[in-house]
Amino acid sequence: MIKLKARHIIAIGGKRTFLATILVLMGIFSAYAQTKPNIIWLMAEDISLDLECYGMKAVKTPHLNKMAANGVRFDNCFVTNPICSPSRSAMMVGTHQLKINADNHRSNRDVPLNEKYKPFTYWLRQSGYTCILGHHGVMGKGRKTDVNFKSKKIGTWDGRENFGLFDKVDHFEKEDQPFFAQIQLNATHRGDWWDDVRAASKHPVNPDEVELPDYIADHPVTRLDWATYLDQMEFMDNEVGMIFQELEDKGMAHNTIVIFIGDNGRCNIRGKGYLHDSGLHIPLIIYNPKNVEVNKIRKDVVSATDITATILDFAGIEIPEYMTGKPVFDENFSREFVYASRSLWDEVQEKSRAITSGAWKYIKNDRPEIPFDAHQAYLEFYRPAVHIMRTLKNENKLSENQKFFFESLKPKEELYDLKADPMELNNLVHKVKYNSILKRMQKDAQYFDEQTKPKDSIYFPTHAISVDVLKWVKKERPMLYQKMLLGEEIGFGRLHKEFETYKVQKNNER
After folding, report:
1. Rounded CA gap, 380 and 396, in Å?
2. Which side of the chain, N or C, has fewer Cβ within a 10 Å radius?
3. pLDDT in tens, 192-204
4. Full-model pTM
5. Between the CA atoms of 299, 302, 304 and 305, what dihedral angle is there, to the nearest 10 degrees?
């Protein structure tokens, strides 16, 4: 509450005019509001801990290095779903996506949230923040929201007739203060621009210098693909530097907290879409110009929903009771596990659950008959390593660690010692020595299953257009399809446009 001193309270009939009084009061309220920090949430798409400051070889990310050196780097942050829209849904509400019935990818887009829940931007706006989506200078303007409940990017929110998440797009200015800006850095998302970014780089990453995980076959195509991914990381890092420079130029750097994360793991073998660490484990760096602690590394377990709660905490807003997230700088912050789920992704209907403590990981696959390599249409376009490794499998040239992803069945359960086995190559489920740990984690997983049950079971999925495009490519562009099988990304975005034109032409011919 703002307490006004007696000299500020002036009767309308006094010496000052009513207008002057209003101006004085506006100045007081403005001064009060600007004591709150501005907050920028940078969300890079589809990245694991593949930054230089996390030890990734061959990549240079100086701006994020500087951010970590002057802030706090979190080493054990995990998303609650390894796919973009469920993960973003959880972060937008600060509540596990299962509880809000948002776990199925691109589903329930016309279904309002249960009235109990609200996007966290609602609370920021109630507290006087201007909420901004995107940025004028980043690739694609960074305006992605992608949540599995009824919403609009811009507009007011009441959850019944109005479903706006943000106030404006692209620009943060002094008059917006205090402001919150969520900016998507989509260069790292698989896209037709990857080769162009690499070609334009003054120092493209050398494929011979990259270090592949043991579960990815060492092949010229997989090495080049990994190097090209790291080129996108460097491009994205430059965008981070541009945003910091803009804050300096506009005189707002001293009062702006910047948070950097990934929305889910890298788009590669065992990454995005899967409950292994390469799908769930994300970078988290928080820079607070008023924080006396710098170059700090925290090892405690953090959920992506905790980031949402932390933003409200920075803004001085009480955390709603429904949130499963907790402010990470609260002196009482403590989290033993992050509970994650995987359900529908495009045409593949899964049901897998996991808990991780950062030291141990347990995964329960309720549909083991659906293999990891389910030939999902979207991934056919965007994972060269899959095509290369299928060929190597047929030639019996994959190692045991590499074969795991291509088995015809998934294990019903998986247990990993992440300290001794960070790549999750040795499943300990059937090792008697680890029975007590397994039973404990089974029990904990069951507890989370019960705690995250949604209040309703409404289910309206969106058709995956990638399925139609892939069928069309096989039939109408067979030469391109053969290139895909050899590990070449043939450009889904461009082919999607060609397919839509083809459909219109066929309809006109009827």
Report:
1. 21
2. N
3. 999 999 999 999 9
4. 0.92
5. -150
